[in-house]
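Running this now, will post back.
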Amino acid sequence: MNCPACDTENTPGDDLCRDCGLDLAGLDATAWGVSPEDPVLAVRLSALPLKTPLVLAPDATVTEAIDLMRERGEGCVFVVDDSPSPIGVFTEHDVCVRVAAPGRDPSHTRLRDVMTRNPVALQQDDALAWALHRMGVDGYRHLPVLDGERFAGFLSIRTVLHSLLGG
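Update: finished.
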C-alpha cells in the first residue's frame, strides 16, 4: 500500500509508514465510502486556499487576541517573534480552558503564558491526507503551513471541509 501522505510504498499490513510515520492502520480498507488512495486526499496543501494568519507578539494580551479574532472572524491567532515560523498558537479553546476557567484577567494575561507552544506545522508539499491525519489524531482545528521555514499561511478544518466538499 502506498502512503496517502508521502506516496512511499509500504508492506501491506504495516501500521506506520516507514518514511513519514503516518498511521496506516485501517487505511487499506475503504471507510465512509472514501478510499485513502483517492486522488482528492493526495492533493498538496499548496493547491489549497491557505488562509492568511492573524499574528501577534508573545507579549500581546489575551484581550488584544480576542479583539483581533472577533474583528476578523477567525478562531486563532499565531504567536510570532523574530523566527520565520510561529512559536505558538492561541485559540478560542485556549480562551475557555487557559484563561476563563482559571479566572485569569485577559487584559493582563500575556499570550506567551497561555498559548500552545511550538505548534505542529505542515509543509506546503504535504498531502491533504497528512493534514487530515494530524487534525484527526491530535484534535487540531488550525495548522500552520510552512514553505521551508517561512510561515506561508494556515489551514483550518473549515478550509479542508470546503475542499473535500468541492466548495
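Strands lie at 55-56, 76-79, 88-91, 116-117, 122-123, 142-147, 150-156. More later if anyone needs it.
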